Amino acid sequence: MTTDGNDSRAVEILENAVKTYSYKGLEYTALRGINLTIERGKFYSIMGPSGSGKSTLLHILGLLDTPTSGRVVYKSVEAGRMKDRDLSAVRGREIGFVFQSYNLIPRMTAMKNMLMAMSFGNKIPQQDRKERGQSLLSTVGMGDKSEKLVSQLSGGEQQRVAIARAMANDPSLIVADEPTGNLDSENARIIMDLFTGVRGEERTIIVATHNPDVAKYADINITIRDGKLAEESQ
Description:
By secondary structure, this protein is an alpha/beta fold. The protein has a single domain, classed as Rossmann fold (3-Layer(aba) Sandwich). The chain contains 7 helices and 10 strands. The strands form 2 sheets. It has a 6-stranded mixed β-sheet with strand order 6-7-8-3-9-10. A 4-stranded antiparallel β-sheet has the order 2-1-4-5, covered by helices on one side. A hairpin with a 2-residue loop joins strand 9 and strand 10. Helix 2 (84-94) crosses helix 3 (110-121). The longest helix is centred in the C-terminal third of the chain and has 14 residues, at 185-198.
C-alpha cells in the first residue's frame, strides 16, 4: 500500500525500500522495493518463509537498520536524514523491541532489566521507574518474580519479561521478531494475548512470524516472498 508522507494516520511509511547486503564480493538483495504504510493503533503480522526478508523488513521498521535505497518516514520525519544519536533516541523513547532470543541480561534480575531499559530511554522520571517496572511485570504475570535473575526464569517467563521491557518507555510502536518461536503452544497463546492487550489507539504492534495461528491475532496480515510484498489482507 502506497501513500504520501503526510498521511495523519501513518506511524511509518516505506517508499520503494531496497536492502542489499554484500559479503566477500557477492551481493544479496533482501528487500526489493517495499512500499508500505503502518497505521497508528493497528496490529500487523509479517509472514513469509525463511529467507523471505521478513526480519530485514522488521529491523528497518524498527529503525534498527536502514535501506540501501528508498525512504523510511517515521512520524513525518525521514529517517535517512536523522543523525545516529537522534535515531538512537527515537528507538529508546518510542519503539519497543521483542526478540525471539529475548535479549535480556541473564545475570541481572527482571527488575534491573526493566530499569536499564528506562535509563536508556530516559523518558520515565527516575523516581517513577521502579514502580512502573513492577506494574508492567505484574501486567505480564511476572510481578512475583521481579527480583529473580533472568537466568533462573523459563523461556516463557523470559519472553514475558521481554514484553514488559518493550513497554518500559511507553512506546508508540512495538516490533517483535518471532516472539513465540521458542515457546510451546500454551505459552505462545499467553504471549499473543499480552500483545493484544497492550495494543491501543495510539500504540501499533508489528510481529514477524511463520506461524499462521499467531497471524490470526493481527488486524492486517502482510506476506513477503523473495523480498517483495506478496499480499496484504485484513
